[in-house]
Design a protein that fits this description.
Layout: E1 6-11, H1 19-29, E2 33-38, H2 48-55, H3 73-80, E3 83-89, H4 91-99, H5 105-112, E4 117-121, H6 125-129, H7 131-142, E5 146-147, E6 151-154, E7 160-164, H8 168-179
Parallel strand pairs: 1-2, 1-3, 3-4, 4-5
Antiparallel strand pairs: 6-7
Helix pairs in contact: 1-2, 1-8, 3-5, 4-7
């Protein structure tokens, strides 16, 4: 019997949060167990109920919620992960990770896991091109984090430029590659 692989999907506060639904659907169809971590900013764009319905798992929003078992939720999830995927990833979450800031469930799981980390950025082109964001991405790549996208596309501000989240197919393909 093959092991069921687990992807921890971090969803952050971006208009591209809706793409998490497509990612979950594609992974679940591929018999992957998807556990969603939702930042408080992401809840402004997408509901936990939607993500829970699609993933068939409880959505974790709060590091301090009482766990179902005695295990601390962030370390239990970190140990269960075969991959941590952050899609969409904002400049904020990229900066927090690059700076070692560990102040929410998503950053705590990332820092506690030994699984590969895949990041799919989504932000305004000026933010993406900002020197600090580029330095943060380089720093994370330097420690082994993988990135997919962003691509040129229509942004929330109406511009057609770099910063659009990568295509769902490309994100899922890279996730499955890292799961092998």
């Amino acid at each position: 019997m093959a092991k069921i692989l687990t992807v921890i999907l971090g969803v952050t506060g971006s208009i591209a949060s809706y793409r998490a639904c497509e990612i979950i659907n594609a992974l679940v169809k591929g018999s992957v167990d998807v556990r969603v971590l939702l930042t408080k900013e992401a809840k402004e764009f997408i509901t936990p109920l939607t993500l829970q319905t699609l993933s068939r798992n409880k959505v974790i929003e709060d590091m301090f919620a009482l766990p179902e078992k005695r295990d601390p939720v962030h370390t239990a999830l970190a140990e269960k992960a075969d991959l941590v995927l952050i899609a969409p990833a904002t400049a904020n979450i990229i900066g927090k990770l690059a700076s070692g800031i560990c102040d929410d469930i998503l950053t705590c799981v990332v820092f506690a896991t030994e699984a590969p980390v895949l990041i799919a950025p989504a932000m305004n082109e000026k933010m993406y091109r900002h020197k600090i964001v580029q330095e943060n991405i380089s720093k994370l790549k330097g420690i082994g984090y993988k990135f997919v996208g962003p691509i040129k596309g229509r942004l929330a501000c109406g511009h057609e430029d770099i910063g659009h989240i990568a295509d769902t197919k490309d994100i899922v393909t890279e996730a499955k590659r890292l799961l092998r």
